[in-house]
Design goal:
By secondary structure, this protein is mostly helical. It has two domains: 10-64; 67-276, no CATH class. Helix content is 76%, strand content 0%. It is built from 14 helices and no strands. It has helices at 10-26, 31-47, 51-63, 70-83, 86-98, 104-119, 123-140, 145-156, 158-161, 166-175, 179-207, 223-229, 233-249, 254-276. Helix 2 (31-47) crosses helix 3 and helix 6 (104-119) runs antiparallel to helix 11 (179-207). The longest helix has 29 residues, at 179-207. Residues 254-277 have low confidence and may be disordered.
């Protein structure tokens, strides 16, 4: 590297850094500390102690980036949603309406993942919530373990693409791209992948009904129960409209928007209980 204390090609430096990172992870160092140690260590090795200034100045610049304020608020929203019982209510609603379809429970799990992605943008929140709610329900009704686990694992990854996504915030930040434009660009691909998941599950269940049987008629409920179950979706629509609507209209930036989103999410369990009672 020109002007540096060590002259190595970018390819060699990349391989060395990646190898050191893998070594750190292999011996049990937490990933955050491993990444920081590799970055700081190679900065000092390549540029001398002046490399410390690069590390500190870059971290200071990132900490002063207002858009990152949205990230902890997204995590807070995901944590609240995970503990609010919303996944149970949404899955119960989908269970009543789509249970008669072949693979209806798996299709419902994908739909709930889309809702979670549109509210929190966190893969972990959807995976944990549906792992506790949808996975036992599918296994209890004779679903194949591969379909049940694969549906939740694959459906949870939709949260990465469906806005608002935490990953998109970091990509937009480092790529110097508008976060709002990134969110808008992720809508169609995210919904397209979710639709392909649903089509695949439906075709698989039709060809192999023993792997994803429909819900028995006695568990589907009557029309009165189906209509009453729609109340679980009202708070969800409210949060999605608040989180996405203000971003796409440009009336609020992402951080201010997430303040409103997490506040609405905190009240969501109370709204759901009141509408369901």
């Amino acid at each position: 590297m020109d002007g540096g204390l060590v002259a190595l090609s970018p390819e060699i430096v990349t391989l060395l850094m990646f190898g050191c990172l893998l070594l750190g992870l292999a011996i049990g160092i937490p990933i955050s500390f491993a990444l920081g140690a590799v970055g700081a260590g190679f900065g000092i090795w390549l540029w001398g102690w002046d490399g410390c200034y690069v590390v500190f100045s870059r971290n200071w610049a990132l900490m002063n980036t207002s858009i990152l304020m949205a990230v902890p608020l997204f995590i807070l929203m995901g944590t609240i949603l995970q503990g609010s019982g919303l996944a149970d209510a949404l899955f119960s609603m989908i269970h009543r309406w789509a249970g008669a379809l072949p693979g209806g429970l798996a299709i419902g799990a994908v739909v709930v993942c889309v809702f979670f992605g549109a509210m929190s943008g966190l893969t972990g929140a959807a995976a944990i919530s549906l792992g506790l709610v949808a996975l036992p329900a599918m296994l209890k009704r004779g679903y194949s373990k591969h379909i049940a686990v694969g549906t939740i694992a694959g459906g949870s990854t939709l949260c990465v693409m469906i806005p608002p996504s935490v990953i998109m915030i970091f990509v937009a930040l480092f790529g110097e791209i508008s976060v709002g434009q990134m969110f808008i660009a992720g809508i169609l691909p995210g919904l397209l992948i979710a639709t392909l998941f649903i089509i695949y599950l439906f075709i698989t269940a039709k060809r192999h009904p023993e792997q994803a049987p429909p819900v028995p008629p006695e568990e589907r409920g009557d029309w009165k129960g189906k209509i009453a179950s729609l109340s679980a979706g009202l708070p969800t629509v409210l949060v999605i409209a608040l989180v996405l609507g203000t971003i796409f209209t440009g009336s609020q930036d992402q951080s201010n928007n997430e303040y409103g989103g997490q506040t609405c999410t905190q009240w969501q369990p109370f709204i759901a209980n009141s509408t369901g009672s």
